[in-house]
Automatic annotation (TrEMBL):
This is tRNA modification GTPase MnmE. (6S)-5-formyl-5,6,7,8-tetrahydrofolate binds at R26, E89, R128, K470. Residues 224-391 form the TrmE-type G domain. GO terms for biological process: tRNA methylation; tRNA wobble uridine modification. The lineage of its organism: Bacteria, Pseudomonadati, Thermodesulfobacteriota, Desulfovibrionia, Desulfovibrionales. It comes from Desulfovibrio intestinalis. Its cofactor is K(+).
Amino acid sequence: MSSTSTNDTIAAIATPPGSGGVGIVRISGPEAKQVLSRMFLPLSSKFDNFRPWLMHRGRVLDWNGEALDDVLVVFMPGPRSFTGEDVAEIHCHGGAFIVQAVLESALRQGARQALKGEFSRRALVNGRMDLSQAEAVAELIAAPSREALRYGLNRLDGLLARRTEALRNELEELRMQVCVAVDFPEDEVEGMDAPTFSATIDKVAKALRHLLQGSRRARVMQQGAVVVLAGAVNAGKSSLMNALLGRNRALVTDIPGTTRDFLEEACDLNGLPVRLTDTAGLRKAAESIEELGVERSRQKLAEADAIVLVLDGGALGEAGADAEVCPDPAAREVLDSAGNTPVLVVWNKCDLCMPQKFPPRWIQGQTCCVTSAFSDTQVEDMAEHLRTLLLSEGETAGEEGLAPNARQTLALEASLAELTALQEDVDAGRPYDCCAVRLDVAAAHLAEVTGLSSPAEVLDKVFSQFCIGK
């Protein structure tokens, strides 16, 4: 794409493949209005040379002047268009043959077939959006959930761009002060004392860490979260999974060790895609097959985005809730091995025993709730606890609504690494001119988020993942 001209006129089908009620062919470039005029026959006697932003009804013609379809067309002059240049759209009936024939007519009348993402790339080149906003366009189209739509729309509105640009400006201001201190060493430069310098670095680094916490949410919303149900045998994991799914997917019996292997099913938590994984109960297995299942359970726990630790409330009883130390070996293992993985502790079978003191004394710092999978008591409440845990983990009020994608995360991590090294240089008493180099690099990585310093090959890779009509 980097070798194609941005001065020619391009055209493409802007609606998905297949048949539908309406199909749209989009034309963008300096000759967009001329291409449209050569293939459009207005039906109104009051037609006024494609009055901007107004839909006109007429017939779209093929390259021989024969009518193809009854259509609506609109002309949108630049720079106040999506691409920043003249744009025309033809809204025809959505039959696959009709839409393709309209596109072919536009191509024969002087337009060129657009490449993948070329409309969005022109919007970037013409200053209508930055790279983070362009990526948000593609991610909105492919959004698998309502939450993904919300976070993608925030980036499309420029929230991430504004935040990273503000941080980059702080680094640029610091760099200018460093340059003055280097060029005029005999003069006293305000604000260049080591504590103030370090405080600014720490402030920007802290903001970057907050932004990076949102990258986990981006992955969860785009790919779905892996949630593992774990606990002792007969704690009710399979029953709880069935209750969440709303159907009997997992086999449930009173026989300990019924679940020998993990079982995965897709689930929707109020707009958030989740993959539930029911695992074998954690215990010392009595035979080799169950032992293999327990080992797989431990592997799944290590891969989880969140863990639902299911406690057998009926077996633990009041004594278990009031204990100082966790009396459930399986629960102890899960809590000890969870690390940074968020855990939702569920006191199941609350219909058999509802503890007077909850959460139990031995649960520290974990999200807890009670439920009864058997009677569906408070299962919806538990599902909402899980959804909140998945979306809010690591989220702070200052960065709410931000979720950088994988490319943006790499740029933010690289900038943070430079600032960490810079702080080490300052602590070691390195000269200011060395500091300026790291500030330059850190600021350049932040500029990559919005595409200000992205090379052509990076842009080619980003826009090659777009659909042709966008």
